[in-house]
Amino acid sequence: MKNTNKKTTMDDLAGMVQRGFAETTKKVDLEAFKEANAREHRIMTENNTREHEEIKLRLDNVAYRFELVELQKRVGVLEKKVGVRHK
Fold this sequence. Notes:
Strand content: under 5%
Structural class: mainly alpha
Oligomer: single chain
């Protein structure tokens, strides 16, 4: 077995430290991305829920309006048959 002790130079040590910091930065960036993504997802979910409620309310009003128009037509027919004039 050969003993090949290689002396670590300052440049080697600087390279090791630099690679260590680069890995740490990647991990920190990934965590920041995950947090930002989760925050964006929460905001989008809240917005979608709000928009869904607004659309549902509009559709409910459309159904109500449709029923109202239909009832007005029916009352008009009845008033005509009875001889009452609507003002």
